[in-house]
Amino acid sequence: MTVVFRGVVPPVVTPLTQDRHFDVASHERNIERMIDAGVHGLFVLGSSGEVAFNTDARRKEVLDATMRIVDGRLPVLAGVIDTQTPRVIEHIKVAQDAGVDGIVATAPFYALGGPAQVERHFRALREATDLQIYAYDIPVCVHTKLSVDLLITLGKDGVIQGVKDSSGDDVSFRFLCMRNEAEGQPLQLFTGHEVVVDGAYMSGADGSVPGLANVDPHGYVRQWDAYQAGDWEAVRLEQNRLAELMTLVFASHGATGYGAGVGGFKTALAELGVYETNQMPEPVERLGDQAAADIRAILIRAGLLEA
């Protein structure tokens, strides 16, 4: 556990071909673009990476391609998200064999339990691996909110090394940052919310995991650099620009949820020439021509495309 994750760690969006195969060439272009922008790590097979839609074979395909492309230039986190502990441990073994630096796991879901069961889940993962473990707090998907007390306890006991917070609960995240500081910082804390990264940095976050960084990695790196320099006005202004860019997820013309969010990112990447298509996994429909035109206009206003 020698690698310390810190800074901008984008959750890599998984590109698909027209017939829904993994588009390795587009994946490589996206990773190289983000590395060139100066990101500090990568997170594959997260929510933006379609982990819930991928077969085990597809997960391994994405992992192997990512590790080949990165070739040790950046640390890599891999999502091992699944319904219950034994399946998560199977994914950990595959990720470990691929050579990742850490794994990201949610609370167990489908067969829901209480806090004691969630704690046992993470302790069982620690028993199964020496990799860094990041707890993924995303209650909208797994129906369990990871409490500050639980996360701090697991951190102090060395069970987990960090948290990727996508809870939407910025009050809880603030209290987590305060407790983490008071306890000697046993955890590395990351926000997954594109629009309030500045607030997370003010709370003391160690970095961000913004899906929008696939579209504008330079912006999030500039914001991080301003944070490190203590230039809070630059942090705020960059956040305002990125918040405006984030409106691309509302240009969906009827699509909702995953189709609007990740679908918007994919459409933007296709408009930028990074991805060949904006294809989505079954049963999600990709965004149509009108949405693409609206997203293109947003990219132009953001200075990412020429008119």
Question: Which short descriptors sum up this protein?
Answer:
307 residues, alpha/beta, 8-stranded parallel β-sheet, 12 helices
Descriptive notes:
This protein is of the alpha/beta class and 307 residues long. It contains 12 helices and 8 strands. It has an 8-stranded parallel β-sheet with strand order 1-8-7-6-5-4-3-2. Strand 7, helix 8 and strand 8 (207-208) form a beta-alpha-beta unit. The longest helix has 15 residues, at 56-70.
Itemize the secondary structure elements and their pairings:
Elements: E1 7-8, H1 24-37, E2 42-44, H2 56-70, E3 76-79, H3 85-98, E4 102-105, H4 115-128, E5 132-137, H5 139-142, H6 148-156, E6 162-165, H7 170-182, E7 188-191, H8 197-203, E8 207-208, H9 217-229, H10 232-245, H11 257-271, H12 289-301
Helix pairs in contact: 1-2, 2-3, 3-4, 6-7, 9-10, 11-12
In short:
The protein contains twelve helices and eight strands.
- The number of helical runs is 12
**Looking across the biggest beta sheet, what order are the strands in?**
1-8-7-6-5-4-3-2
Helical residue percent?
40-55%
Largest sheet: 8 strands, parallel
Strand segment count:
8
Radius of gyration: 18 Å
What oligomeric state do the depicted chains represent?
Answer: single chain
Any low-confidence stretches, pLDDT <50, length ≥5?
none
Q: What form results from the Cα inertia axes? A: globular
Secondary-structure element order, N to C: EHEHEHEHEHHEHEHEHHHH
Beta-strand portion reads 5-15%
Instruction: Give the termini separation.
Output: 47 Å
**Mean pLDDT score:** 96
Q: Would you tell me the structural class of the helices and strands?
A: alpha/beta
